[in-house]
TrEMBL record:
Keywords: Signal
Domain of life: Bacteria
Protein name: Lipoprotein
Taxonomic source organism: Nitrospira defluvii
Signal peptide (residue range): 1-19
Length: 79
């Protein structure tokens, strides 16, 4: 499996596991369906960073989540 394919599979797995958890990403003014677009943009921006192109999954996920938080998304516990 190539490096980009492994990266994509890992990110999809983390997203799936996160979706099964008890928390969700919410934004005060954007609809829930906007999350996927914002996540994909943040992830693409993160993967362009030369420091993160080594493929360290945890750093990529953390950088993507920081980008989402800068856009106003917050990870909150489901009720």
């Amino acid at each position: 499996m190539t490096r980009p394919a492994r990266l994509l599979c890992s990110i999809m797995l983390v997203s799936l596991l996160t979706a099964c958890g008890s928390a969700e990403w919410v934004h005060p003014t954007r609809p829930k369906d906007q999350y996927a677009q914002d996540y994909n943009k943040c992830q693409a921006d993160t993967l362009r960073d030369p420091k993160l192109q080594q493929g360290i999954q945890l750093l990529i996920i953390q950088a993507t989540e920081r980008c989402l938080q800068k856009q106003g998304w917050r990870l909150v516990e489901k009720e």
